[in-house]
Amino acid sequence: MVEVSFSPELEQLQGVVRQFARERLAPRAAAVEAGRAVPDDVLTSLHEIGVVSPFDVGPDALDPLAMAVAAEEIAAGDPGVAYEIISGAHAARALAVLGTAEQLASIAGLGSSGVTPLGSVWLYEGFGRHPHEYASTVNQDADGTVLQGRKIGVVRPGTADFAVVFVRSAGQRAVLLGPAQLAACTIARDDRDSGKLGLLSAHTGDVELHGVAVPADSWLTGGGLAVDRVIAAIRLSTAAIAVGTGAAALRYAARYATERQAFGKPISSYQGVLFPLSEAEIALDAARYAIWDLASRLGTATDPVRLAEQTAFIVAAANQAARSATVAGINTLGGHGFLADHPVERWYRAAGTIAALDHDPLLD
Question: How far is Cα 176 from Cα 307, in angstroms, rounded to an integer?
Fold first, then answer.
């Protein structure tokens, strides 16, 4: 049995974020999704809570376990908000873990948002197996070192103050893109214009790197296993968002099942309704504890191949559990489950979108 002990500080953090997500974010989630953007007051509130500051790289910056816990709780309020906020926070964390003091200082001086610099992680390429199979690379040409590739599901395309990009170069490498480099990238797809299935409140898109020049001082000096650990932390947070999405759907469906009457008694008393919800909850619990377990052990991971394999299996399990949970939620509500009158359809769409970001077909 997996056992992960929370410090008093992490328990307090979980409680504060949970309260914010369920009481202040969830009631307005439909309006937030319709607006296709994370409201400024939500961003500011989470920053003030100290959970996922857009650029928190000090001694109080969250570790991978805390990031995963926060990601799940925010996702219960709105998965799209969770994805954008956590992705931006991971950009700051990657810079803190892998960058130099000079690189941190160069970003700290930015802040077009008017609050603090907003970051973006460029990792996913879609339907991959492990990050070492991604196609984005760094090459040498007549102009020096350049990046080539395409990244999907990046947050704040065209609006981020900085980005951390992961590419292959004799292993995993990470590079910091500031305003000048970001301007040289091509936004191949802006989901606000093109549309997507779920996570509508997150501003996402696809970005192409066509010979983007990389100055020598843009490379994050931390390499090797440190990069693999950072990548694993990012992927585990996305999996945690999936778990939070599925858990929200189950809670809503369970409450509906106790209130909805059929043949003179609540439909929750029928095995055909109760069992699928129970099975989905068990799968979510297993995925949640697996995420917490690996996140708490990232600092001691020594084998990058084994780490990638463990992360892939956990992500696959979390995505499957989230999809099953949202399907169970839809089925519990019957035809009403597909109506926008109920939030279950929003969670159903979000779970499918998350699964498309980090998907290993060999694990299906």
Answer: 24
pLDDT 10s digits, 258-273: 887 677 787 776 778 7
Q: How far apart are the first and last CA of the chain?
A: 24
The closest alpha carbon to 90, from 221, 241, 214, 216, belongs to 241
Cβ-proximal residues to 315 (8 Å cutoff; 6+ apart), any chain: 235, 236, 238, 239, 358, 360
- φ, ψ (nearest 5 deg) of residue 35: -80, -10
Q: Where are the alpha helices (DSSP H) in the chain?
A: 8-20, 29-35, 40-49, 64-77, 79-98, 101-108, 179-183, 191-194, 225-259, 271-297, 304-333, 344-357
Average pLDDT, the chain: 87
Contact 138, 169 (CB under 8 A): yes
Is 8-108 a CATH 3.40.50.700 domain?
no
CA-based nearest residue to 149, from 177, 127, 178, 124: 124
How much is the pTM?
0.93
The structure tokens listed for 5 are: 């002990």
Annotated domain spans of the chain: 8-108, 119-218, 225-363
Spatial separation of the C-alpha atoms in residues 90 and 76, rounded to whole Å:
19
pLDDT in tens, 290-317: 999 999 999 999 999 899 999 999 999 9
Q: How far is CA 237 from CA 79, 107, 240, 248, 274, in A?
A: 12, 23, 5, 16, 29
Domain 225-363 classification at class level: mainly alpha
| Nearest of 144, 128, 310, 123 to residue 218 by alpha carbon | 144
The span from the CA of 310 to the CA of 302, in Å, is 12
The sign of the torsion formed by the CA atoms of 285, 291, 293, 296 equals negative
Q: What is the pLDDT of residue 55?
A: 47
In contact, 321 and 243? CB cutoff 8 Å: yes
Q: Which fold has domain 119-218?
A: Butyryl-CoA Dehydrogenase, subunit A; domain 2 (2.40.110)
Same fold, 119-218 and 225-363: no
